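@channel sequence for tomorrow's demo:
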Amino acid sequence: MRRLVLALLLLAGCGVQVREASAVQPNPARALHSVDEIPQSVTLYIYQRDHLLSRDYQLRNSASFVVVSRDRLRFHVGIVRREEDDADTVSWDAWLEDAHGHRIARGEREVAHVDRISVGWALYPYRVDDSWCRQTRPCLRRLDPGRVFDVYEGRADYVFTAPDLATSQDDGFTLVLRRGGVEYRYAWLFGGHTEVRHYGRTKVDDDVGTLAIPGPYTVVAGTKYESDRW
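structure tokens (generated this afternoon):
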């Protein structure tokens, strides 16, 4: 019995960590032939912290898509990690799921590259008597040159192709990215209004001004294109 309990605990520890951002919006395919509107989705974000970084920061992963044609969708993906190899999209599996859980295999992975993002700002330590800081969000201080650090964002376009792919998914679909024990899910549901729910960003984060990476207080310090490595 003790061995069985231990085995179950080990299996539970090997489970996949699922993080999901979702949106309700009109199907962008409706604007496919419009001259006034781009047939694109809202951008969804999955925020997460790294235990080796201060709580001043959240790494901000992203995904959005564009309807290229009735049969073709192009997803713009950003994966942010402290280590370059972890951010590289070559090491991530990707697929598309319809509302019934059926998988659609990924086609091409294009314009793949990794940006090196330099972070030179942090939040000013908050104190109750800092009235000027309470009125300014985010309240920032520039890091000393020796404390400036880098993180990495892997970026790529994922292309999915199937007959009437863009117009036949009336209920929406989900882009799934998985590496090791982590799974990101970006779900778009189609409806008559727009409502967005990112993952991992709280009201407290907004109130104190937790810095998103990448974001307005970060700089792209360098780029490596996958096509240049071979």
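heads up for whoever presents: The helical segments are 2-13, 84-87, 131-134, 165-168, 203-208.
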